[in-house]
Amino acid sequence: MVEKDVIVNSDAGIHARPAMMIVREAMKYPCEVMLIKDSVEADAKSIMSVLGLAIISGSKLTIRAHGEGETELVDFLINLIEKDFRV
Amino acid sequence: MRKLTVRYFIEGEGRIDLQLRLYAGEGGLDKEIKYGEINRPGLALAGFFDYFAYDRIQIFGQGETAFMNQLSYEQKMKTYSDFFSYDLLCCIFTHDYVPDKLFLEFAEKKNVPIFLSKRGTTRFITLFVHVIDEIFAEQVTLHATLVDVFGVGVLLTGKSGVGKSETALELIERGHRLVADDMVIVKKIDESLLMGAGSEILKHHIEIRGIGIVNVREIFGIRSVRNRKRIEMVILLEEWDSAKEYDRLGLDDKKYSILDIEVPYITVPVRPGRNIPVIIETAALNQRLKKIGINSARELDEKIKKWIMTEGQK
User: ipTM beyond 0.95?
Assistant: First the structure.
């Protein structure tokens, strides 16, 4: 299991398009991956779950993956969020 | 959980609707409600302050107000200054009773919000417990879809991509009602009651691969949705695994634990061509039968056993 924290800095938070980028990437990996905000867990492979977290600028997010490809996926998602989805 | 303050009694998003009227002590509206409990301050007013639960919500009924009425000014002065020496959370007067001037002066000075309720004390407490219990209920967010199928709250779970949303859509099309898709907030209202609802922003939206996000309420109308539903059974959808043995009899009741409450649970294998919505409808109806004490599998089993014992012996 890999778990890393990240602070979301993009002004608009994670709205529909960034959420889709996260889900699209997560779907490429067989592992289970969760986004956790304020102890609410959301499946990163489900766009509705990700949107449901209502992640705004400044939110602290934990990404936890478990299974095949976990390290690469978590690193990729952290990078994506840190670079403001401009990858 | 969000920080709950006394202010929520009268305003704000997620307002606690107890139909209260603020009468005095506005300065204390930002006090935090830490416990969803109440206290009747009768004993404290009579001068007994041991175990005085000052950080609970104080409810003044007819008994308390009658007691206060018969006090002389000097007695009031003494009683109130003792009473308000504690860091009180707030006071609620039932029967729309307006406390005396001295009491209100103390409340203003000490920033203790005073609310009035039109209801009688017992009625008010019933409402209060009902509303507050739900706010303080233990909760968990599940990656699942909740549908009301023939009045049975069916929680569909399973890995992403197994077809929960598509199944829900088909159920809606057949006249059932969607509560929440993909993200269900489950609250333990009582030791045997789990209430499921969707998150406020996602409400009644569903994501269908190939179409994207659609608003079920707008497309199918108001009858296709409901805001909350008691969770009465869990159905796990999983890809058909030919190596796995699926339940063929339904004699054993399996349970799924959510917040330490056991919910009847079945696994439905998904395979192209299998009509999952019909299976879910049947499972929901079967669950209703079980609830009123009819277990089809068990009854057939009994019948066969009886037949074996009688006819089979001939």
Answer: no
